[in-house]
UniProtKB/TrEMBL annotation:
Residues 4-119 form the Response regulatory domain. CDD domains: REC_OmpR, trans_reg_C. It comes from the Bacteria. It is found in: Cytoplasm. Keywords: DNA-binding, Phosphoprotein, Transcription, Transcription regulation, Two-component regulatory system. This is Response regulator transcription factor. The lineage of its organism: Bacteria, Bacillati, Bacillota, Bacilli, Bacillales.
Amino acid sequence: MKQTVLVVEDDNMIRELISIYLKKADYDVFTAVDGEEAKEVFLTEHPCLIILDLMLPKVSGEEFCMWLREQERNEVSIIMLSAKSRTEDKINGLKIGADDYLVKPFDPNELLAHIEAALRRTGQYCQKIAYNGLCIKPRKGQVWLFNTQLELTKHEFNLLYYFMGNPNVVISRESLIEQLYPYANKLVSDRSIDAHIKKLRKKIEANPASPERITTVRGMGYKFVTE
């Protein structure tokens, strides 16, 4: 699965340049032009790495970095980009939570090398699947909806993980039963799956009575919708 990177940069030319290089290197790329938008994008897309300019409008790069670390999202790497080249600026950036610091102007290939190095260190802790604010972290056994961690049962978690790993695919109740009860020595009814999904919808849907994430496909099963 592709790694997701958020580029936070108010300079259009630099932001586009970084995005082009990252997409060529097969990363999923999202962008923000200021620290306020960066918070919204972060909570929606749950990236594994953030390239962060410091001198941003609305919310500065330093403020955004401290906000992120306060969320206890330590699996996310931050590479700061700045025209501030003094040693004390670099030290301060690292102290408030950055994993790396590059000075502008920079070579895009050098930035890619720093990204690869950062993800080698932290990528194993940032294994997740995220769609529209809903994020599942199988290694940690966590599910987040934007900025809220959800409490799911074992069956609810396994159901959601299977759905999110197979987006936009109709999955029959029989397949879901096999996923939840692979060693069952007695017959498990479709109603059990329906009950688990009803409870799961209450936790992840804005309106469980009219679900938009896990939809019912009549006569066939269920589908996790992302598009």
